[in-house]
Sequence to fold (128 residues):
Amino acid sequence: MTTSRARITAAAGCLLGIGVAFAAAVPASAATATCEARNTTSSSVHTLTEDSSETCYRVQARAERYYSSGAHETAYGPSGSVNSTVYATPGVSLSAYAGRAQPVSSGPWDSYVSFTTTSTTKTFSVTV
Fold:
């Protein structure tokens, strides 16, 4: 019986140690920065614009360009401080609209978020 208790005590101590180590790895000063951006979309233009009540540091649009031959490619708009646009050319259509934002200059970009309607506001957030 003593052996069993020792194993249980050692296992509990190990789990406690893991929890303490994980808590120490997360900085106490971590904060979340957010901003909002809205898309305007058609079959030939996809634009991501920061919401007027929020200030994103940068935004970037992304869409799939589909050619009449059946080929397609992922197209990225330039990262901009106010908006970003992906354009299609004659004979090319756009689909699979997405965008990402960098809420603050000192933080990372948020992941790409898909837009399924022509005018939707999304919130982007990162830990800084």
User: Anything to note?
Assistant: The chain is about 20% helix and 45% strand.
